[in-house]
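Supplementary notes for students who missed Thursday's class. We covered one full example, reproduced here. Read the sequence, then the structure, then the short commentary at the end.
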Amino acid sequence: MKKIFIKDLKVNKSTNLKCWIANKRQIKDKLFLDVYDSTGSLECFASKNETNNFDLLKKLNRESCIELQGFLSESIEKKEFLIEDFKIYNMSTLKISPYPNEPKLDVLNDIHYKQVIKHQTFYIRNKKLSALYFIKSVFKKQMRDYFWKKGFIEFEPPTLTKQTLYDDSGAIWLNSEGQNVSLSRCATFHLEPALIAYEKLFTITNSHANEKVKSNRYLVEYMHMKAEMAWFNLEELIIFAQDLYYNCAKETIRICANKFKEFLSTDEINQKLEKLNPKNHILITYDEAINILKSYNINLKYGKSLTAKQEEIITKHFNENFVWVKYVPYTVEGFMFKRKPDNNFLTLTCDLIAPNGYGEILGCAEKMTDYDEILKSLEQKGKKQDYDRYKDYLDLHKLGLPPHGGIGMGIERAVRYLVNVNHVKYLKPFAIIKNTQINH
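Structure (token representation):
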């Protein structure tokens, strides 16, 4: 078992350190190694006169797994680990280009990422990618902690289902023991039945989508947070979602301060967090969004979704602040979303759009509880022929389903805003992007 990590090293104390070689350079009989472990990186020094088996050490390739014996030395200029001896656990013999931690490799550059996506198995260890995955992991933990503190339980929805929230063409279908089933895109059909047992519940699971177009916000497989709450109306859902995102982001930034430095300056981080503060959010209606676009000579057909470009124009209109768009038309929403009492064409929904082109990150919605109302909505959305698929879910509306609503968030999208990267693919290990070959 490993007991000493790079973060634990004490100056002038003899130590054995298990690590990997990131880079190395040699000047005559002196060798400089950059090594890393899960907690950080460190510069090491070896010399022919002071290091046992020096000739073997200098032959080791990058990414070799080793154990160094020596001590941490500190001078005015830097800290450096002086190597006295070493042990080899796994000598790196695979030739890859570029190596995962080569200085010239920029994984956030699309040209370099083409190599990464071909061989993702090798590049998880890259400093930037591993930092992004770490930040995302902490963000998910903060969400779980937040929900538990608020009295929620975590529920487990199935991955295979016959029920789809939107059009069937947007789901990924497969044959399972002779049955045509899809990979779940939305857990709402399986969270709502549990409301009667728990009243407040959430899940953070992989969801799957067969998106029609490529976008920097879309993945075939992505991490999805869904929460359902009994007795919440739309306004209460919005307040809860604002507080959830803001507080989880704030805690994640605090815990991962050093990781964030890979991507943003302290001032940039503070600016992002300030914009995320609910007091700075703007709330408009879908109708108001249509009128704002008209003022820029953009005519969006009423009942259509805002495009990514239109979302960007709207947030720019409000000085690059977060904007909530309320009362989205039923034509672009799920059939179970409750309608606005004074306008049956609109739903009791609200989407949060992030500034600077990051787009929609989360949404809130009140759900229908009346059986006749949801049956009519199902037919209105062209799913009448699929009644048998949804029968139990529909019948739930005749068995004491309480007033309730839900929140949905794309985790990669939420974290992408915080770390300032240009595509959600950088936040998903073994990312699957539309029309790309799966090699893992």
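Commentary. Residues 226 and 408 are 5 Å apart (CA to CA). The domain at 6-95 is CATH 2.40.50.140 (OB fold (Dihydrolipoamide Acetyltransferase, E2P)). If anything here is unclear, bring it to office hours.
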